[in-house]
Amino acid sequence: MRTSGRQRRYKLKSEINVVPYIDVMLVLLIIFMVTTPMMNSSVDVQLPQANAKSLQQKKDPVLVSVLQDGQLYLTLSGAKKELVDEDALKLKVGAFVRENPEVSVLVGGDERGSYGGVFKVLADLQQAGVAKVGLMGQPGEPAGQGKSTSDGRK
User: Fold this and answer.
1) pLDDT below 70 — which residues of the chain?
2) Which of 3, 105, 135, 139 is the most buried (most CB within 10 A)?
3) Which domains are present in the chain?
């Protein structure tokens, strides 16, 4: 006896349709690409340039930013930047360094600001018990390719 065409059993497909997953991933990628720049609440500090190698850090450093007008911003291990005064800087950094003695402390001063503001922060950090302090800068141009200044130096 012959079976009719309607009674045939179809084989099950063992393939997965990945098109919906790709669509969802692309939408998530676009969402993350749009929202990531908004999450950076940065302070506009123009760091001086230098031709030095960057240091490799094991932990997130404590960052102290000194603006051109002398305002101080503190970032503790990747947390949000907060505006602080000198006394709060000493207390917070001192307590944080006592809890994490291997954490590095970096000071970034605005290139347009006065040297006195950065020097005062360095003295405050020393009073807070910080043994080692680093200075931040931006990578400069390779040697021999820098811009000439008005007095002929490079």
Assistant:
1) 1-8, 40-45, 47, 52-58, 140-154
2) 105
3) 62-137 (3.30.420.270)
Do the beta carbons of residue 118 and residue 68 sit within 8 Å?
no
pLDDT tens-digit series, residues 65-89: 888 888 899 988 777 888 999 899 8
Instruction: Mark out the alpha helices in the chain (DSSP H runs).
Output: 19-39, 86-99, 115-127
SS3 call for 62: strand
CA–CA–CA angle 69, 72, 76 (5° rounding):
155
Element (H, E) at 73: strand 72-75
CA distance 67 to 28: 37
Return d(Cα 148, Cα 105) in angstroms, integer: 33
**Residue 99 identity:** E
Helix axes 86-99, 115-127, angle to 10 degrees: 50
- In eight-state DSSP terms, residue 7 is G
The model carries a pTM of 0.55
Q: Check residue 5 and report its DSSP letter.
A: G
Helix (H) / strand (E) containing 83: strand 82-84
